[in-house]
Amino acid sequence: xxLIFFDLDGTLLNGQSELSGYTRDTLGLLKDKNIAYTVxxxxxxxxxxxxxxxxxxxxxxxxxxxxxxxxxDENELILHNALDANDxxxxxxxxxxxxxxxxxxxxxxxxxxxxxxxTIHEVESNLVNKYFAKTKASILPIEAFDAQYExxxxxxxxxxxxxxxxxKALNAVDSLVAYSGTxxxxxxxxxIDVHHRLANKGSAVSLLKQQLNANNVICFGDGDNxxxxxxxxxxxxxxxxxxxxxxxxxxxxxxxHHQDGVAHFLRERFSL
Length: 272
Hints:
Blueprint: E1 2-6, H1 8-12, H2 21-32, E2 36-39, H3 45-52, E3 61-63, E4 68-71, E5 76-79, H4 85-97, E6 103-108, E7 111-116, H5 122-131, E8 138-141, E9 150-159, H6 160-171, E10 176-182, E11 189-196, H7 201-211, E12 216-220, H8 227-232, E13 235-239, H9 244-249, E14 252-254, H10 261-269
Parallel strand pairs: 1-2, 1-12, 7-8, 12-13, 13-14
Antiparallel strand pairs: 3-4, 4-5, 6-7, 6-9, 9-11, 10-11
């Protein structure tokens, strides 16, 4: 059994962070041929479903870089290696030292809650008012946070220099891993996403491989958060826009995500 895992941003999604019509049609062709596929993304389930919610991903789905797995057939969200109180305190303290607002992403009773202090920069305010407000997540003040909420990850956005400094500081903490990249808001901004180090795509892919009895795992990804699933995949494909490190580990380099590179490859690979 082939089992395909798609990263979303920079891989399956186009430059407008959408599933193109061509890609949607290609996923439908995979489904018609009973080829198993799902997503493995750094996005939260709420964020991802805002984009792909009208496409039927029937199999278990990986979110928050492996911190959560959604089991649609059981209507169950499973958390793996949530951040503990000490991890949270370290992340929030480093963020505040650099005058960046941390957004604490949490799960409670299958619902997504985002806690944050008052925003400092316009790019942070825009994230809340123009993006978070359009999702099903509940946005709450950081003072309302308590231990009943399980923290999947903490995210931030800001100018590159402070974000890079935060990225370096948090990756030096044994229990944490931080991923970062250029933000959609402009070349001058970077995003950062921080998780428990044991919560990663590779461990989640391994769980689903066993659960679904797959013998050939095929992964598509473009960023450093895809390296762990590339390490355990049987076939690994990177779009033309991927990081050099990802391309070096790939079985093959395929077309750019702006040009539906994954979809074109799938149609050839599986004779769709």
